[in-house]
Each structure stands twice: as structure tokens, then as C-alpha cells.
Design goal:
The chain has 306 residues and is of the alpha/beta class. The protein has helices spanning 11-17, 25-29, 47-58, 82-88, 92-95, 121-134, 143-153, 199-203, 242-252, 278-294; strands spanning 3-4, 22-23, 36-41, 65-70, 89-90, 100-105, 135-141, 158-172, 186-196, 208-214, 218-224, 229-232. The longest helix has 17 residues, at 278-294. The protein is globular. The chain contains ten helices and twelve strands. The chain starts with a strand and ends in a 12-residue tail after the last helix.
């Protein structure tokens, strides 16, 4: 089933070339079905690339999904054209009076800063507080997950000895949890970060449950037991070449990055990386949409309760 976006969003042509059903606004208006309203707060600098990655996964379900793209007003993106942002993105003031079935908060390349030193931190905390009362379920990614755990539960982030970059082996700790339904006992997930969260800090909060962990990458998937918040420290949405782009970008900046773990065959950056996380990436998002958005939210979003 389709995702509904503005007709001329750049991601549309890419997704249609992959046979992912993207529905025009006009066609969607003629369907007698309420689409799921999903808000994406895109904090990544490469906004068009991130839009495409997320829409690809959100479009792989039997549900009609109505997407709103959100940007921060207190931070000016340097890597996305003002025209694109003005045309396709809204600010918090433009959406705060609405309610949404689901919301995604992406990662951001600000991990080395204390949370309070991020220039849009105050705005982000307002959005996260607003989400408690106006969004049924929120899916946080990477730094967005760390920010959400810190704001909602006081869980601090911890500095890692070096950047965690690569494709890491994970174990599912609760095979019966709907978010990981259909997963194998073990799965792979991309990570690209300098910070993480400590398992002991999560254990202090009875509301939280660790769903997946990695010996190398640590705690990776955390759920609020009420189903209203999920925190994924990896990047299931990444494309095959996303880590490669980051690696070569750092090389070109004169840095000396480590080759991403379990990524390039024979650790040779000249080799094309195999995509070993596609199936569970789709499961992450379809399970979230199905079990925690579609099956839980009321038909009339005005009936949404805290």
C-alpha cells in the first residue's frame, strides 16, 4: 500500500523506480480510508537522502501513510536548499495544533556536544514534550534515541573509545515483542556514532525494556513498555552505500577513519558492501506501523489520550 507525499518531492521518482507505491494527494483524497498520519522530524544534514530512506521503509506496508516533514526553526540547514525546506517542510508552530498517529525523530551529527549545547535543544525538548500528548507512538533513531532517553528518562549518553561504524551482529532478547516479531534470533544493524547508552542505566527504569543488544555495539533497541516510545541506536534505514559515503567523506576531510566493521568485503573500501540488514529494516518499520500505530491509535485522533 502507498505512502502519500507531495507530488513533486524528490524522493517520489526514486521510490517509484523501485516499484514502491507512492500515491498522489489527489488520488489519496478519493479513498474512503483514514491514512496514518506520520510526522518525521528530520535532523540529519542530508535531508533528501534521509527522507528517501525513511519513506522507502514506510512505504513497504499494507497501510496508507500520510507524511508530514518537520524541520527545526532554530537551526539553519547548510546542506539542503532553502527552497526544498520551504516547499516540503513545516516548523513546529505549523503542526503543534495537530495530532499524529506516529512520529520519527532522526539522528543528528551532534553527539560530541552536550545535549544542552545543541543549538536547537530547547526546541527539540518542546517537541518531545508535545509528542507525549499529541503522538501515539514515537520512533527515535541514533542521536534522536539518546536525546529521547535523556529527556524522558534522564538516561545519560556515554562516550565510546572510538567511533562505532559498521554493521554489527545483534541478539534479540524478547522474541515475543511485536516490534521484533518475525526477526531471526540474530540480525545485523548499521551503526555510526561516537556515543551510546549504558545497559545499567536502562535497567534503572522499569518502564523500559531492552529488545536487542550487541557484544560490540552494546544496547541497540529499547522500548517503552507502553508502546508509546521506541529507541533504536542504529540506522536500520541506511542504504547500502551510506557508511561508505561517510567513510570517504572523512577521508576527504583529512581524517583517518577506521574502515567500517563487517562492511566492505575483505575490509577493502574498493569492494561493494553487501546489504545484510534490509529484511529486518523493513520489519522494524512495518511492525512499528502495524502493532503500535495502526492497531492502537483511535480512528479519530482527537480521541488520542496520554
Amino acid at each position: 500500500m502507498p505512502i502519500k507525499v507531495q507530488d513533486d518531492l524528490p524522493a517520489t521518482k526514486i521510490l517509484e523506480s523501485e516499484n514502491i507505491f507512492v500515491m498522489s494527494s489527489d488520488r489519496a483524497a478519493k479513498q474512503d480510508i483514514r491514512p496514518l498520519k506520520i510526522l518525521i522530524l528530520n535532523l540529519m544534514p542530508t535531508k533528501i537522502e534521509t527522507e528517501t530512506q525513511l519513506l522507502r521503509l514506510l512505504g513497504n506496508s499494507p497501510l496508507q501513510v500520510d507524511i508530514e516533514l518537520l524541520q527545526t526553526e532554530t537551526h539553519t540547514s547548510k546542506n539542503t536548499s532553502p527552497h526544498h525546506l520551504l516547499k516540503f517542510y513545516k516548523t513546529f508552530d505549523e503542526v503543534k495544533d495537530n495530532k499524529f498517529d506516529g512520529m520519527i525523530i532522526t539522528g543528528a551529527p551532534v553527539e560530541l556536544l552536550p545535549f544542552q549545547e545543541v543549538d536547537y535543544w530547547d526546541e527539540l525538548t518542546k517537541i518531545m514534550e508535545w509528542s507525549i500528548h499529541n503522538v501515539y507512538s514515537v520512533y527515535h533513531i541514533c542521536w534522536g534515541a539518546q536525546a529521547g532517553l535523556y529527556y524522558h528518562f534522564g538516561v545519560p549518553k556515554t562516550m565510546l573509545p572510538c567511533k562505532l561504524s559498521g554493521i554489527y551482529h545483534h541478539e534479540v532478547l524478547n522474541m515475543h515483542h511485536p516490534l521484533v516479531r518475525g526477526f531471526d534470533d540474530a540480525f545485523y544493524l548499521p551503526h555510526s556514532r561516537y556515543t551510546g547508552v549504558d545497559e545499567c542505566q536502562i535497567a534503572k527504569h522499569s518502564e523500559l525494556e531492552i529488545l536487542a543488544i550487541s557484544k560490540e555495539a552494546g544496547v541497540s533497541v529499547i522500548a517503552n513498555k507502553n508502546g508509546r516510545q521506541f529507541f533504536v541506536l542504529g540506522h536500520a534505514e541506511y542504504d547500502r552505500d551510506t557508511l561508505a559515503k561517510e567513510y570517504f567523506r572523512d577521508i576527504n576531510k583529512g581524517e583517518n577513519p577506521r574502515v567500517p566493521v563487517n562492511y566492505f568485503p575483505d575490509d577493502n573500501p574498493a569492494n561493494m558492501p553487501p546489504m545484510t540488514w534490509r529484511s529486518n529494516a523493513n520489519l522494524f518499520f512495518t511492525n512499528w506501523l502495524n502493532y503500535y500505530v495502526y492497531q492502537q491509535t483511535p480512528y479519530d485522533l482527537n480521541d488520542l489520550k496520554d
